[in-house]
Amino acid sequence: MPIRINTDLPAKKILEHENIFVMDYERSLRQDIRPLKIIIMNLMPTKQETELQLLRSLSNTPLQVDITFLKTETHNAQNESRTHMETFYTIFPEIKQQYFDGLLITGAPVETLDFEEVDYWPELVEIMEWSKTHVTSTFHICWAAQAGLYYHYGVRKELLDEKIFGIFEHRTIHRKTPLVRGFDDVFNAPHSRHSRIVREDVEKNPELTILADSEEAGPFIIIAKEGRQIFVTGHPEYDVMTLDGEYKRDLAKGMDNVPFPKRYYKDDKPELGPVKSWRCHANTLYTNWLNYYVYQMTTYDPLEIQNLK
Which reaction(s) does its UniProt entry say it catalyses (predicted)? Predict the structure, then answer.
């Protein structure tokens, strides 16, 4: 898939080095097709790392994808340069009149707070409401999945005594649903969170369907409104070293009771490095989303997206 991004975005050189097809705006203008318009609301503190992870995840189909990065207007990024944010990110008032084929909302390190205590919660609520009429399909990741389920369906979250951290085994349910087409019966995925959704709230709501589940980590993939809204409670986009970085960061901070990442390091020995065991299913998940719930569902005229509601 040719990803269309700003020529100067730092991730571009890394992606090209990995033989991922990246197209700049000048070249894309010479193609007589309409690219899919995907907007990514990046709430993660490590902005550039998350950009790279998600761009890799969206690069596995022959579709041309036009990427826009969205930042919060009411909360300034603390771990990224102002120049990077001003150069490559936009704010909601600048795009609220536009229509997008897909929206990705990332996780955020605010799980221990009630949703209403998050300083940008009103802004996120406005964007989630806007997505109902201006986006064909919205993909919520980790905390954003909890936030979306809470806002749209009243699904509660609860804090955990022990962080869910590491690689967890999941089983595929409703195998004929296109979002999990090509999945094995059992597959792995990374999780890193201090809270979980209340399963009973999901199961009793007829609009929500659990497509993949884990005995330890809970519901993983949840779908609503025939794919207009998708909720993924883990981090399938994570690179092989991401959990390693989180673990060593917390150790360096001298935090008490730092959880050890389950089933992540070879023989549970950090010095042997991690074992990548989730990438194929992660790629399939994002490819299925783009193909079945964005490309095949969206309209050629973006203004008609509002009619899909």
Answer: L-homoserine + acetyl-CoA = O-acetyl-L-homoserine + CoA
**pLDDT tens for the 309 residues of the chain, in order:** 455 667 778 877 787 776 555 555 555 444 446 789 999 999 999 999 999 999 999 988 778 899 999 999 988 877 778 899 999 999 999 999 999 999 999 999 999 999 999 999 999 999 999 999 999 999 999 999 999 999 999 999 999 999 999 999 999 999 889 999 999 999 999 999 999 999 999 999 999 999 999 999 999 999 999 999 999 999 999 999 999 999 999 999 988 889 999 999 999 999 999 999 999 999 999 999 998 899 888 887 777 777 776
Residue type, 73: E
Give 199-205 contacts, CB < 8 A, sequence gap 24+: 201/149, 201/153, 201/154, 201/155, 201/156, 202/149, 202/153, 202/155, 205/153, 205/155
Do 141 and 253 belong together in one domain? no
**Catalytic, out of 111, 235, 246, 281:** 235
Domain assignment of residue 85, given as a range = 3-240+278-308
The answer to whether 123 is a known catalytic residue is no
Same domain, yes or no: 100 and 213: yes
Would residue 237 show up in a list of annotated catalytic residues for this protein?
Answer: yes
Domain count along the chain: 2
